[in-house]
Design goal:
Chain lengths: 124, 294
Amino acid sequence: MEFRDNKAIYLQIADYVCEHILLGKWKAEEKVPSVRELAVEMEVNPNTVMRTYELLQNKNIINNKRGIGFFVDESAIENVKGYRKVQFIDDELPVVFRNIYLLNIGFDELKAKYETFVKENFNV
Amino acid sequence: MEVIRIQHILVYYLTNTVSMIKINNLNFGYSKHKPLFKNMNMQLSNGHIYGLLGKNGAGKSSLLKNLAGLVYAQSGTLDVMGFNPVKRQPALLEQICFIPEEFYLPSVKIDSYVKANAPFYKNFNHTYFSQLLKEFDIPASNKLVNMSYGQKKKFIIAFGLATQAKLVIMDEPTNGLDIPSKAQFRKIMASVLTDDRCIIISTHQVRDLDNLIDTVIMLDEHDVALKASVDEITQKLTFKKVKELDESIIYAEASLSGYNAVMPNYHNEDSKLDMELLFNAILAEKIKFKPLFN
């Protein structure tokens, strides 16, 4: 995985896990990769993945069945959305807003772009 | 009696998170007039990958050699898993995997090398060794002298890890590895870190390894200039791109779109540690960092 420059690695791995859950690749109550498996895949220190899993456990996105491993929580999708929404509003939206303001982009234009984007990418 | 005592020590060190390595008041130098380490103190525990950084000549390789009993200190004590490495006891040496930067390999085939050297390590795992050779794409029938530098390096890494030693010491392991081998190396290192192992990697190529390292050790001016976990560093410092400099910034380097800056983490931000920037920052502003990490 290609990591970005500015965000802590354990948070980028959390995004990766959340993305898999939102896209339905990892389903509720299914087992997620072990700490070691994910560390090998991501080429990172297992302690970093452990930190990611601790965070996701606190957000009730995954849970730990002692001795068996980590599983996708039954209400994971809902909890991922809540967690990601806060992150998006706090971290990413200000950057988008800044550009909208600086480049003087109208909300009607944005709305049209947004609708085309959704149609093209998610077939809704 | 001696054997039982040694076994007791090993069982203790292999089953508990303790300081696997204790360095106390170490004084070391290649000549009396030019000390390399002055009263160095440090403790290293199992379950971590330590990244050892320092300028050329700061003593990275010398520190690693001290730990493996390859050089002798003038004074001070060194404790590695309950042993003094200077005594070079087999019970300790079979638990050390040392991958030096420069190495010699005899003119024999891989299987003869293994036959001659694997018996020194009672936990040597032949299946795992074959698996590592395969992952590194080295044909098992090769003669060692006919291999390229990179292939030789991958061979000794594979041999070293197959010994299942608890202390893994690597001096510039990614030197000479091609691009796919570096990725392979990172995957292998991520898989070998277990709770009972202590891994120390010295490197100048921090971008090759920065996501593998969980604790940074930096040597400078005869001593440990910094020893802190990545979590502790990013808790205390923020690494980010800024458009303009202000007085909160401890150190900054110009980049295409402004500056890459290090500053105290006032707002509890979760930034990504930029190891090269930290390295340069500490060399330039040692005094400003000292009070943050004590």
